[in-house]
Write a structure and sequence with these properties.
66 residues, mainly beta, 3-stranded antiparallel sheet, 5 strands, 0% helix
Length: 66
């Protein structure tokens, strides 16, 4: 049996205007409980995920009207 290689993935998520997005969910597809949420600077880091994994990004934008 071969051990599956693991990698670390980090990134910065921002919108079309270049504003960092806080609270974006970043999950490893098909791996329950393996994920993080972006910090106040829009950054995330996942460690020890299997090579070839797919990431799923989820974000709910809230619009404020006056």
């Amino acid at each position: 049996m071969f051990a599956q290689e693991k990698i670390d993935v980090a990134g910065l998520i921002f919108d079309e205007q270049g504003t960092e997005l806080i609270g974006v969910s970043v999950q490893v597809k098909g791996s329950q409980g393996l994920g993080v949420v972006t910090d106040i600077d829009g950054r995330f880091k996942l460690t020890g995920i299997p090579t070839g994994s797919r990431l799923v990004f989820s974000y709910i934008a809230i619009c404020h009207r006056k």
